[in-house]
Amino acid sequence: MFGKNVLTPPPGLRRNSPPASGLPSGGLFSGANAVKNWVDTLLSGDAVSSLVTPETIFLVLLLAFCSGHVIGWVYMITHTSLSYSRSFTASLVAIPVIVSLVMLLMAGNVMIALGLLAVFAVVRFRNVLKDTRDTSFILWAILQGMAVGTLRFSMAIIGCLTIFLIFLYLRITNFGSRHRFDTILSLQWTGGADNLRSVQSVLERHSVRSRVASRQDDGEDGLDLSYRLLLRDPSRGQELLAELEQTEGVARASLHHREDESEI
Question: Which of 118, 145, 173 is the last residue of a domain?
Fold first, then answer.
């Protein structure tokens, strides 16, 4: 009898004892569990795919971003024609990331692939997109809708944040811009095709770099020449014009300033 009374705690003490785990059992703890379960559902609870994990998505996006950078740099270095578009170069970085997400979304599901093609066909039929950057945003919007609609929440969240950061990075760094030339000079030369040394000497004094963009023979009127220049001081462009107009053989000259190379 004595041993039983010692080992058994009083009923009141048993009722007031805290839980064995030491964690609160009220509504606050239940709410924290609900938030945690909701976050776990978004990040790893894709209802239709268990093979594509968040880690795999991050790796795919990183490789696509690096590959797009290489493509953009190669395009910038090798581009030599007169028209150059910075927005197109920046799109070369974003498009591989968007396309890689599209492929992850379609992986192993023929119905999603057919639905995606149908959406592309509708957008292409109803809209004529002339800017590559606009095309990138259309692809992004379609991708987000398809990812959420097919219950691939982790892919939708990771893809949305990643592509947003990529476009923000492209905007802040001004990726794709290059300052090879900032001015286009047009002039009419009547001094003979072999006597352009005087013009070239004037251009060398006022510009860091110059290149003949176009040359057209107008017969008796002489030559119509177009130069691409990188001026030493853009604010002194009028001095260059005044010196060219005083040069023998120059019938007409005009300057067109541009912040970057001409874009179409």
Answer: 173
